[in-house]
Amino acid sequence: METLTIEWIDDNGFVDTTELIIDDDTEDGDAQDLLTAMTAASYAKIEKATTMDRLSFTPTAATAGAFDAADKLFVPYQNDDKQYFVQVPAPKPDILLDSEKADNTDSRLTDLDTQITAVTAGAYGTKMPAYRSRRYRQGLRK
Amino acid sequence: MKTAHFRYVDANNRIAVHSLQIDDSKVASDLATLRTKLQALSNASLKDVWVDEPLPDFTDGDVVVNGAFSVWDKAHFLFRAGKAFVTLSIPAPVVAIFNRDETINAAHILASAVIEAALVVLQTKLGVDVVSFVRGWREKKPGEAKIN
User: Fold this and answer.
1) Nearest-CA distance from A102 to chain B in Å?
2) Residue B126 is part of which domain span?
3) Residue B33 domain flag
4) Quick check: is B58 in a domain?
């Protein structure tokens, strides 16, 4: 199964989001048929319809201890006047030079940079020095 | 650009979710290497990676130019799926699909088309297919809509 997210907008510019669980064995055309029927029954317009695809993999277990997902390594990117941030929660201590700075020559960070450039097709621009931030302490408890 | 979502959980069950804007040509499997690189830097467990994929062949609908029609006004279609129920909601519904008491007229051509299409694809969160339409009604209560 997968989640179909539908974003609606009415003539006043108000938006609403509908989420539905759909059978991922059905054809895309079947989901399209549902959207067509829903649009016909509404005065609003469907502006965007997306499904969420999940990457299949076996997760690595978290390292036991006081490592906190609210403690983050920020990897900033700059493309002209736009900034983007890649975040790594609970960063491994050996990537850090001191309490706030990362070792930007570490191969794990340069490998990450290569992959970020690949998946964004360079849209994030140039990697800037990574740093640690503990400002965001409100991690959500499961 | 589309969005990839990464969900981490640390050993104390704290959760962090982070999103990246990725190129339109990339799919979930294109993120496999990035996932391993992110995991190599973190003591938390990277549990899930999701990618928003635009539905193929989807074309925008048309908005009816009339300020009186609002997404706060909704038609709810209730379906049965085994012992569970699934609700499909349509904002700013066409008024012709309602009976005089503001229940949905399942025999109306627009409502029946929604029901027919929904019975093909809808499921519960546990993956149980919907099997029948139960009833439908109108709700005019303001919701969580926001100005775009």
Assistant:
1) 11
2) 74-139
3) yes
4) no
Does any domain span residue B146? no
Question: What is the rounded distance in angstroms from the CA atom of residue A116 to the CA atom of residue A118?
Answer: 5
Find the length of chain A: 142
Please tell me whether residues B79 and B124 are part of one structural domain: yes
Within a 13 Å sphere around the CA of B43, how many CA atoms are in the beta-carbon half?
A: 22
3-state secondary structure of A88: strand
A58-78 tens-digit pLDDT: 999 999 988 899 899 999 999
Q: Count up the domains in chain B and report the number.
A: 2
Tell me, what amino acid is at A50? T
Does residue B148 form part of some domain? no
- Burial pattern B97-136, b for ≥16 Cβ within 10 A else e, equals bbeeeeebebebebbbbbbebbebbbbbeeebbbeebeeb
Same domain for B47 and B78?
A: no
Nearest C-alpha in A relative to B112: A37
Give A 41-70 residues with CB within 8 A of chain B. Answer: 41-55, 57, 59-70
Q: pLDDT digits over B74-87, tens only?
A: 999 999 999 999 99
In this prediction the pTM is 0.70
> Reduced to 3 states, what is the DSSP secondary structure of residue A85?
strand
- Give B55's pLDDT tier (boundaries 50, 70, 90): confident
CA within 13 Å, CB half, A51:
22
Q: Does A104 touch chain B (CB under 8 A)?
A: no
Claim to verify: residue B45 and residue B81 sit in the same structural domain:
no
Q: What is the ipTM metric for this complex?
A: 0.75
